[in-house]
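Board notes (copied after class):
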Amino acid sequence: MERITSKTNPLCTHFRKLASSRAYREETGEFLCDSPKLLREAELWGASVSAVFYTPGADVAGAPAGARLAEVTESVMKSVSPMETPQGVVFSCRSTGRRPPQRLIPDASGRQRYVLLDGVQDPGNVGTVLRTADAFGWTAFLLPGCADVNNPKTVRAAMGVHFRRVIYQTSLEEAVRLVRAAELPLYAAALAEDTADLRTVDLTRCAVVIGSEGRGVSREALALCDRTIKIPMSKTCESLNAAAAAAVVLWEGARND
């Protein structure tokens, strides 16, 4: 059994860089995950796990065969974990491809619903939307300006979606081209003069743009959308954050599944 007690071990340095640097994650093609729960999800869905750190007594039953497994001290775990309160397991995974296909086709259940995140910068919100999209049968596109899909906070909030669902990253123009080629309506969750109540719009086969927490949907995206939709809510509430708004829209699209 391998045991690591030094914070200067090269693998420790590698883990810390994966936790802190988007550029390093992109360069190495790896990302960092924490918690026994995520490790079990990775094993369940056949993710390519490279290395696993665990503290004595932690549950590593889900560690895939072939992964480098090392017991570490509590101080080493705290030095590499991206979380303030480590859960005793941290591991690195190979990142899967994020390029979209040449054309959009229905998923295994025959659904064609896409959520396009436009400049959503909070990694927790991005991860939450990915998790919600997975729950309600939508496929996610991350457009430029979004938080890194492999940021540890995004990964943790998504709770295993990285291992079991396709997540695409591309430009606004490419995403819109794919939506148009599939003959899908493109909506934006935003307010305009002709904004429609989302309960009156057919969301069973479509693409919806969700904007950032501060500015909302960008002008560039709005100009390319067929129409805007709104969530009916109390007059005392000005708006919802991106993750909450997305949850309502995505559930509405799946309500009649």
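Comment from the instructor: The longest helix spans residues 123-136. The mean pLDDT is 95.
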